């Protein structure tokens, strides 16, 4: 969905959509393609382990990614910095892009990103000329260190990857967003469109969604819903939230005094009940 005069800028490149979409878990490649188109996304991430690097067969996932979308290979499955670096180099050779979504997730139960190995991998990849978008814990100190290492974005999790539990890390995300000098992309755990809107409303530059779209009863409709929610959240953030009232006192939207009294007196005079 076009971003008009408010593009997402990553490493000097502008994108109209602030919704990034993944390619895993879809029931079929065709459903995935239809959902990608419906999402309006311009950046799509694909696990390098799922790509046929020899491109020898038919029906590879890359064959179903619309050609106008920017591929963001990811290092999903890497358990340390060296493995992430190796996967990224294979992806650059096969896909022809220096963009990489860095993922180092040694714990198969939580798929939590390893902060130490993620930072080490980021340093290796940046030194090797990659444009690095690291998936990381919602840790303000780590986010700052990744930015200092030269990463193009930081991508803190909202909750466990694939959990659809929403922004369980909101307080930390707000701190990261306030301090960041690079785009903050909320990645992992976003389960419904309102989660995406919430992330955008607190100032995230973008959101990345995969599972919530792929496992929906209607992935194409859900992709469209996420596109609208992401845009609405961004517009709300730019509009600026009004003053937040207290929990014990209401404030009427319309005045309760002043012109109401004058209007009542005027109506009474018109009816002949009092002298004008």
From TrEMBL:
Domain (Thiazole synthase ThiG): residue spans on this chain: 10-255
SUPFAM superfamilies, per the entry: ThiG-like
Subcellular location: Cytoplasm
GO molecular function, one term: thiazole synthase activity
Swiss-Prot/TrEMBL catalytic activity: [ThiS sulfur-carrier protein]-C-terminal-Gly-aminoethanethioate + 2-iminoacetate + 1-deoxy-D-xylulose 5-phosphate = [ThiS sulfur-carrier protein]-C-terminal Gly-Gly + 2-[(2R,5Z)-2-carboxy-4-methylthiazol-5(2H)-ylidene]ethyl phosphate + 2 H2O + H(+)
CDD domains named in the record: ThiG
Main localization, broad class: cytoplasm
Subunit structure, interactors included: Homotetramer. Forms heterodimers with either ThiH or ThiS.
Family: Belongs to the ThiG family.
Superkingdom of the organism of origin: Bacteria
Purpose: Catalyzes the rearrangement of 1-deoxy-D-xylulose 5-phosphate (DXP) to produce the thiazole phosphate moiety of thiamine. Sulfur is provided by the thiocarboxylate moiety of the carrier protein ThiS. In vitro, sulfur can be provided by H(2)S.
The entry's keywords: Cytoplasm, Schiff base, Thiamine biosynthesis, Transferase
Binding site for 1-deoxy-D-xylulose 5-phosphate: 162, 188-189, 210-211
Keyword Cytoplasm: yes
EC number: 2.8.1.10
Pathway(s) where this gene product acts: Cofactor biosynthesis; thiamine diphosphate biosynthesis
UniProt protein name: Thiazole synthase
Entry's Gene Ontology cellular component terms: cytoplasm
Active site: 101 (schiff-base intermediate with dxp)
Any Gene Ontology biological process: thiamine diphosphate biosynthetic process
